[in-house]
Design the sequence.
């Protein structure tokens, strides 16, 4: 796993929390995607991406989140995105219609507990 | 006009000198914004700074500025992704205020290849949401994307 200046990864209890910062655009979205995927171990329940400190996000960032959602989905790992109300990232995700696809939260605490709680639910019996 | 006004307003014998200054308000025309950038992703940040600084400088509010910069960045990103081969060209950006609106024009000199990579339409959808009167003109010479946004807190001079 290689680091990236815009990414800080912390993880415990099976939920990986990645805090992004700065500007996300066409110049760095692919590398950030790569770093994030590398930061999620196979045994992790899911990934929380915190956009609170992101000052700029555009469709490159939207594509990145859609791609991560897709890739984690294959492995049945959850993705939740923290974007505070009234933040610029929130506005961009809403304009792009991503709030209908992704699970958005307003804090890391709620995002993390959503992932943990959904894991505690009993598994459905196989068909 | 001043002489007529003085004659009409002042009795024929005035006690002191009288000066009347008449002023006409002219519409202030802002300098247009012009930038030519290499069609490289790493140049987008500089473009955003420059356009954002220009918009704030002519008194455009923060949210309008952010939305216009985003719309412009999407158009430039599209040009970078679709207009040129690996030996990249340039993208020209022009912006001007027109009464209570700002028009941003992004021009490239290549030919867009449709649907290279996934999710090609996300950027255009964003532009349409931010600047609903967006129009795209494609020709042999390149592609011109014109975006116009009516300013929220516009002060017309």
Sequence:
């Amino acid at each position: 796993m290689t680091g990236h200046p815009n990414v800080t990864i912390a993880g415990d209890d099976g939920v990986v929390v990645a805090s992004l910062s700065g500007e996300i655009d066409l110049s760095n979205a692919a590398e950030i995607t790569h770093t994030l995927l590398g930061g999620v171990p196979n045994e992790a329940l899911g990934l929380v991406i915190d956009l609170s400190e992101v000052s700029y996000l555009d469709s490159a960032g939207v594509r990145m989140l859609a791609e991560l959602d897709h890739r984690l989905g294959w492995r049945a790992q959850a993705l939740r995105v923290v974007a505070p109300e009234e933040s610029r990232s929130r506005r961009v995700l809403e304009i792009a219609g991503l709030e209908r696809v992704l699970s958005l939260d307003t804090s890391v605490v709620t995002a993390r507990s959503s992932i943990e709680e959904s894991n505690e639910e009993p598994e459905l019996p196989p068909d | 006009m001043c002489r007529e006004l003085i004659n009409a307003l002042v009795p024929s014998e005035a006690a002191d000198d009288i000066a009347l200054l008449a002023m006409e308000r002219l519409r202030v025309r802002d300098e247009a914004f012009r930038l030519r950038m290499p069609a490289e992703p790493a140049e987008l940040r500089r473009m955003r700074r420059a356009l954002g600084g220009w918009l704030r400088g002519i008194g455009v509010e923060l949210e309008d500025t952010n939305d216009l910069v985003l719309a412009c960045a999407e158009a430039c990103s599209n040009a970078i992704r679709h207009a040129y081969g690996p030996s990249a060209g340039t993208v020209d950006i022009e912006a001007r205020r027109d009464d209570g609106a700002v028009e941003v024009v992004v021009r490239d000199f290549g030919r867009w290849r449709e649907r290279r990579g996934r999710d090609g339409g996300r950027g255009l959808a964003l532009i349409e949401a931010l600047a609903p009167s967006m129009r795209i003109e494609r020709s042999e010479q390149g592609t011109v994307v014109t975006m116009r946004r009516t300013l929220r807190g516009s002060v017309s001079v």
In short: Chain A touches chain B through 16 residues (CB under 8 Å). The beta strands of chain A are 7-12, 15-24, 46-57, 78-82, 103-105. The helical segments of chain A are 29-38, 59-74, 88-95, 108-120. DSSP finds four helices and five strands in chain A.
